[in-house]
Amino acid sequence: MDNQKKSATQRLSELETAFMSLYGAADNMARDLMVIKEAIKLLGNKVDAMVKCLNKGKGLSDENIAAEMVENNVQELKSRVDNMLGQGVLVATDTVVDNTFVVGRELGDDGKIVNPRIQFLLSAVKPELQDKLKGAKVGDKVDTGEGKMPLEVLEVYTIATPKAPEQDELEGDQPESNA
Question: Is the same domain home to 76 and 21?
């Protein structure tokens, strides 16, 4: 141990270095936990798919398990949309416009379904794709670009803006004065 007295600045500098090291380690642990969480979710999906295959009398082939896993993912995505509908966050509409949430599926060149469900905010995709999707209606097939799969629009929702409370409701929340 060093017998020299350290200044407050030196001690703060060493403390800062030690803290940054701990912060970096904690950040790495958080990332590792997210990886573990995703791995457990994937494993749970696979086990669930295997059970469904057995219950349906299907064999435990890679193809059968993969198909059930995809169906589980589709159901999870559907339930998220249903939840947002129930909360009033999404409102069904028929045309893609700004502030739209789109549900679709990707099709191969032969028209077969490649990805049974994809859902996204229109604002979350590249501007070029936004332009191609704007004006599309439920049931339309949209060319997403050269070398990319076409997208069939299955559902379209607008994002509801929360209503401000009515003035009467605000006044009802005020405490009564005894003046």
Answer: yes
Per DSSP, the three-state class of 117 is strand
Co-location of 70 and 129 in the same domain:
no
Q: What is the pLDDT of residues 57-108, one digit of tens each?
A: 999 999 999 999 999 999 999 999 999 999 989 999 999 998 899 999 999 8
Residues 6+ apart with CB under 8 A from 153: 96, 102, 103, 104, 133, 136, 137, 138, 139, 140, 141, 142
For 115, phi then psi, to 5°, come to: -130, 110
Structure tokens at 35: 């990886």
Give Cα separations from 110 to 113, 145, 149 (angstroms). 9, 16, 10
* pLDDT of amino acid 144: 85
